[in-house]
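Problem 3 from the worked examples.
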Amino acid sequence: MNTPDETGINMALKATPPIGVAGANMFAHVSIPDLVNWLTALYLVLLIAHKGWNMYRQLQSGKERDESGE
């Protein structure tokens, strides 16, 4: 059941995805699937770099964990 007292913030949050797609469609040379693929690739690169940085810091600090996780 939908409540009739929907706030402006809720309406704005519901309108955000269509507004984002309309904004992305304004760029004629980039399609939505291509944009999603590029953003996913960027996210993966950042995730791998962050994991590598954490592993490097752990190696430099000399903290080693044994098999039991202690």
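Problem 4, a separate protein:
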Amino acid sequence: MNENAIRLRTESFENELTHELVEGVTIIIDGQLKQLFDELMQRDAHYDSYQTLVFELLKNGINTVLE
């Protein structure tokens, strides 16, 4: 595996209420990305899981782009 690669997987899911197909994305946390995430989680106890950290990174990134 390339240590600088970010691997993503996509899968379709059906919304139970609307029956619309929606896309789910899985991010593979490994290699240098895992090392970076582990360091960020050690720095701030608010980030208690990879899920919390990914959410914050996406939210802040989207806010930055919108500004």
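Solution to problem 4. The two ends are 35 Å apart (CA to CA). The chain has a mean pLDDT of 91.
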